[in-house]
Structures are given as C-alpha cells and as structure tokens.
Amino acid sequence: MNKKLMTFSIALLAAAVALGAPKKKLPAVAVDEEAPTTGKDAKVLIDQFAKLGGQALLAAPSLQGGSVIGPCYTKPRRWIVLETKYSTFVKWHEQLTFTWHVLLDSKTATQNKGNKEGLAPYSYFTTSMTYQNIPHGSHAASVCLHPSYLELYGEPKAVGLVITNPKGEVLNWKCDSEIKGIPSGAFPKPVEIAFWNNQEGVMNAKKEGKPMIETRQGLLDRSKTIWALVNPNDYEQVAQ
C-alpha cells in the first residue's frame, strides 16, 4: 500500500469510528482554586474504573477494503481494552503518571483450553505512561493487549492502577479483583497492600513448586494501537 493510500485509509477509519461512536456528555468539573497543584494532596479522582473479564473485551474497529490482500481472519478478534475515567480539579497538571498492573487468568484463554502450553495459572503485565499538560476536567486513560494475549493467556481477572505526580507521590490508586486471595482495594488505603506489592504472598506464590504467576511483556498504551482513533479528545498527550 503506498503512502497516499495508507493516509487516506487511516483518515476514512477515523471518520467511520467517529460517526459510529455514541456521543458522550462528560460531566463538568469545576475548577478548585484552592486545591494544591503539587504534592501528595493534589486531588485526582477515579470516576470510573476498568472492567474485568468479558466486559473488557472489544472487537477492533476496521475499514473494509483498506487492505490489498483482504482479511486473514473470518471472525472478529477481540482486544483486551482497559479504560478508566478520572477527574482533575486544578487549572493544569504539568504531568501525571499512570501505572497499570494486570493479571490474566489462563483458565479463560480461548485458544489454550486446558492450559496445553503448561503456562502458570496467571500472567502479570505492567506498564506506565505519563500524560502532560492536563487541564482541569474529565479525562480518560487506557491500556490494551493484542488479541493474541487474550487467546493464549486469558481474560483480565485483576486490574490495578496507580496515579502519581512527578515526585512519585501517590495521588490515587485502585484495584479490582475476581481472584481468590487477591483482595480489591482503593485510595486512601496505602498502596502497599495491593497485590503487586505483595511479593511473598502473591507475586512469588508457588503451587507444587511451580510459580503461580509469570511476568510477561506486551501491555501497550492506547495511543500505540488502533484504539488511538477512538475518542481521541478524551486522552491527554503522552510525554515522550
């Protein structure tokens, strides 16, 4: 595909997604003139958290006719899309860092029934991204896993998110879990109780001498995937 055709195809896809997506009305967030802009007391609220299991799975938007060879898959493949909505209350935050922690359950893998690959029961993924120049109001943050991760390693059964300022101070955090022995938790409780900080009890747990959790790579910021074209105005600029 030449450069002009590729640019045209991406533009068409963006237009199709924008037209097909339902219009959202984000709630207005008033500027808090007295709220601190720095330090651990700066207020950032998590309004809506990422979903678990099948609720986090979405088929990617596509543009028919945008390929010379045509589709290789006759059925839609689903991505793991983890999204959260958050609110800020000062005029501007220079930077906020979002660190995600995700556990996939191998029992729910669609192409590895019965765990034929001999994988650990759970696969752990983590990544961080820093957004910059964040105005007051409602925003979204998101990470994604390619369909191949769902097919081999399973659905997300525990998801955590930590929001920090440039000094590394925790402004908010939350974890939801459907895994026995891994409790859910949220700010203002100390983040040290979260499963990813429990090295002995959770992260290094073993069964019959074998690790219960294996660490893997592949969790991507939304801007590095096809999902970057969906509701782009909800997401702030990722610092380079």
If you had to describe this structure to a student in words, what would you say it looks like?
The protein is mainly beta. The chain has one domain. The protein has 3 helices and 12 strands; from the N terminus they run αββββαβββαβββββ. The protein has helices at 3-20, 147-153, 199-203, and strands at residues 44-48, 57-59, 78-105, 122-145, 155-164, 170-177, 185-186, 206-207, 210-211, 213-215, 220-221, 237-238. Strands 1, 2, 3, 4, 5, 6, 7, 10, 11 and 12 form a 10-stranded mixed β-sheet that branches. A two-stranded antiparallel sheet has the order 8-9. The longest helix has 18 residues, at 3-20. The protein is flat and about 50 Å long.
Number of domains: 1
Q: Helicity, in percent?
A: 10-25%
Give the radius of gyration.
19 Å
Shape field: flat
Rounded average pLDDT: 84
Give the biggest sheet: 10 strands, mixed
Please identify the structural class as seen in this structure.
mainly beta
Secondary-structure element series: HEEEEHEEEHEEEEE
Point out poorly predicted stretches.
Answer: 1-27
Task: Put the structure in a nutshell.
The protein is mainly beta. It has one domain (3-238).
What secondary-structure arrangement, pairings included, does this model have?
Elements: H1 3-20, E1 44-48, E2 57-59, E3 78-105, E4 122-145, H2 147-153, E5 155-164, E6 170-177, E7 185-186, H3 199-203, E8 206-207, E9 210-211, E10 213-215, E11 220-221, E12 237-238
Parallel strand pairs: 4-10
Antiparallel strand pairs: 1-3, 2-3, 3-4, 3-5, 4-11, 4-12, 5-6, 6-7, 8-9
